[in-house]
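Q: Got a minute? One more chain.
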Amino acid sequence: MTVNKSIVIACGVVCLAFAALALVAGAQVTPASRPVRVAAAPAAGESSKTPNAPAASAPAAADSGRQLISRETYNYLGTGRRDPFVSLMNTEELRPLYNDLKLVAVAYDPAGRNSVAVLRDVTSKMQYRVKVGQEIGRMRVASIGPKSVLFGIEEFGYSRQETLAMSDSTKVRTQ
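A: Always. Here it is, folded:
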């Protein structure tokens, strides 16, 4: 029973923290940064004027016990834009990866115009039929040979070439 009470109390504290953050976030959405004046409240039994303070002019006396705080606020209009906090590596447009592909079959044209390769993504079991020049994920098919496919891959500003070869299915399997 005491465990359940502590869980309920912890959930209440978390909810209050999120509510406070929402209020602060709502207060920060301003068109430009501007200084905020914060007045220090006098303690119980004290007057707002400090004893032994030198006499000051009228504007300085009005600012006694106050502190000037400057803060910047930001406003991001995300309409029509990609969320900058979402990882690029999680999007489906990057799939399939070179390491996940297996060359299943090749219909090879010696003239090189109509060759077709059949690839299978071993993780998702999807099948792709590709021709020379076609893009698949971040890869572009550079050439198709009788038993291989040459890919041009661009990642993070660098380009490289990788060859995916068909595995020999005539070998005897041993288990």
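A: Residues 78 and 84 are 9 Å apart (CA to CA).
Q: Perfect, thanks.
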